[in-house]
């Protein structure tokens, strides 16, 4: 009811339903902004979990990082579920590329022949988004450590933008990598030339792109765009000399 009212008032009091939902999903935000003028501000990200890993995508993230990476739950909040990974730990996600869970070729063929979900995008096609709680993103770890008062802190900059107007920004200092309100040691005003304009441009682009999405299909449409552009791993069963063999490869849907 609140969203219905909000869409009809001249000066909206909260974000639209679609924009609000997108703020809770890191991958959908990434997909939405990946074709826009602010795409250069996006951190390289690779989807992992439930067989979602794609070699080239993960390799791109690994190539742009150093020795530490970070895993973020797709729909996490308040730093819950965030883990710092070594390069070796991040590379292990390559082993998970493929089906939703480890299965034999025979089981995979049996499920495919019965039109059962085997790959992540099969769930999207069915409108089943329960997988969002079981997957996440791997990104290069950005070193945010700063020295203040003779101590080394991890930091995070938070900006406030209201009605597409920059209000202000502050920097949090924490003694743990997960910089959140509950871990904050101190807070300072953050000021940097060009930063207000950057924040306004990102928020404007995000809201403008959100308006173009159908409120009933935005999840499906964004996920399908993602899977269509990255391709997917699937097996094609081919009978050779009376024996069922399998060919595994990338399929790019048009």
Topology summary:
Blueprint: H1 2-6, H2 17-22, H3 26-33, E1 46-48, H4 55-63, E2 68-73, E3 83-86, H5 87-91, H6 105-113, H7 120-125, E4 136-140, E5 146-148, E6 151-162, E7 165-174, E8 184-189, H8 195-211, H9 218-230, E9 232-240, E10 243-251
Antiparallel strand pairs: 1-4, 2-3, 2-4, 5-6, 6-7, 7-8, 9-10
Could you walk me through the main structural features you see in this protein, from its secondary elements to its overall organization?
- With 254 residues, the chain is an alpha+beta fold.
- It has a domain at 44-141 and 218-254.
- It is built from nine helices and ten strands.
- It has helices at residues 2-6, 17-22, 26-33, 55-63, 87-91, 105-113, 120-125, 195-211, 218-230, and strands at 46-48, 68-73, 83-86, 136-140, 146-148, 151-162, 165-174, 184-189, 232-240, 243-251.
- The strands form three sheets. It has a four-stranded antiparallel β-sheet with strand order 1-4-2-3. The chain has a four-stranded antiparallel β-sheet with strand order 5-6-7-8. Strands 9-10 form a two-stranded antiparallel sheet.
- The longest helix has 17 residues, at 195-211.
- Mean pLDDT is 85; it is low at 236-254.
């Amino acid at each position: 009811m609140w969203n219905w009212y909000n869409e009809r008032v001249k000066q909206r009091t909260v974000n639209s339903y679609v924009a609000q939902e997108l703020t809770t999903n890191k991958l959908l935000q990434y997909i939405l902004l990946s074709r826009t003028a602010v795409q250069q501000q996006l951190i390289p990200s690779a989807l992992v979990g439930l067989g979602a890993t794609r070699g080239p995508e993960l390799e791109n993230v690994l190539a742009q990082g150093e020795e530490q990476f970070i895993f973020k739950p797709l729909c996490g909040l308040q730093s819950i579920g965030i883990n710092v990974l070594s390069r070796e730990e991040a590379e292990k996600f390559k082993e998970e590329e493929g089906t939703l869970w480890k299965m034999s070729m025979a089981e995979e063929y049996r499920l495919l022949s019965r039109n059962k979900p085997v790959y992540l995008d099969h769930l999207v096609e069915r409108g089943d988004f329960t997988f969002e709680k079981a997957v996440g993103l791997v990104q290069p770890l950005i070193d945010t450590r700063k020295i203040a008062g003779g101590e080394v802190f991890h930091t995070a900059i938070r900006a406030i933008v209201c009605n597409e107007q920059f209000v202000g920004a502050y920097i949090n200092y924490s003694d743990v990598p997960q910089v959140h309100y509950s871990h904050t040691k101190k807070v300072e005003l953050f000021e940097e030339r060009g930063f207000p304009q950057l924040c306004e441009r990102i928020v404007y682009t995000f809201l403008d792109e959100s308006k173009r999405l159908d409120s009933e299909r935005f999840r499906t449409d964004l996920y399908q765009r993602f899977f269509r552009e990255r391709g997917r791993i699937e097996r094609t069963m081919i009978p050779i000399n009376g024996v069922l063999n399998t060919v595994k490869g990338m399929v790019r849907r048009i």
